Amino acid sequence: IVPFLFIRREIHMSALLAGLTVLVIGDSHMSTPDYLITTLHNDLMKKGAVVYSFGACGVAAGEWMVKTQSSCGGAERIKDGPVVVKEGQEAMTRPFNEMVKTYKPNLVVIVNGDTMAGYNQPELQKTWIWQQVSRLTKGVKNNNVACVWVGPAWGAEGGKFNKTFARAQEMSNYLAEITAPCTYVDSLKMSKPGEWGSTDGQHLDIAGYKSWGEAIGNAIVTPEILKTIKR
Fold it and tell me: What is the pTM of this model?
C-alpha cells in the first residue's frame, strides 16, 4: 500500500503545473550548467510545466527590460534541451516584453538578489535596488502575468564577493517589501545559514543547487502561488 500511495503522490505533484508555461530569468545562479538553470528547470518540468530559462551573470533586475550585455557570461535552456552557455558578446539579456510575447508564459520566475545586494559596499543601495526592481515589476504588471521573485540563499560568509549573512537577510527583507505584484519567495527560510555548501560564498555547490532548485519548485506549487496563475 505504501509504495502505491507514494506513486499516487508523485503523480499528483507532477500534475500541478501541467499545461503551464514558465519563463525563468535570473542572474549568475541561472548562468552555469548544474546551477538553477539545471535544477530548478528540471524540477518545474517534472511538475508538468513547459519551461524556458535564461540567465545573465552580473545583471541587475531592471536590465532585463532592455538588451543588456553580461559582464561574466550567460546561458539559456529551452524546454527539455541542453543548457547553452553564452560567452562574450553573445551573453546578453533578452528584453522581457519580447520574451513574454514569444513564449506566452503563465508564470514568470525571477531569480535576482545577490547581484544587487552589494556585499562589498558599506550599506544596502536601497534607492538603486528599488529602481531596478520597479523597472522589471512594471514590465510584469504591463504584461499582466503571474510572477514569483526568488530572493538570495544563505551561501557562505566571506569568499570573493564578501557575502555576509546579515546583508543577505537585509536584502531579502527589502525585496519582500518591493517586489509586488510578484509573490516573494524567501530562500533564507529554505535552509539554515551555511547548510547548503558554497564554492565561493555566493554560489552553491552541485548538491546545494539541487536542494535550492527543488525548494523553489515546491514553493511554486503551494496554493498561495498556484492561485495567482491564469490557466
Answer: 0.94
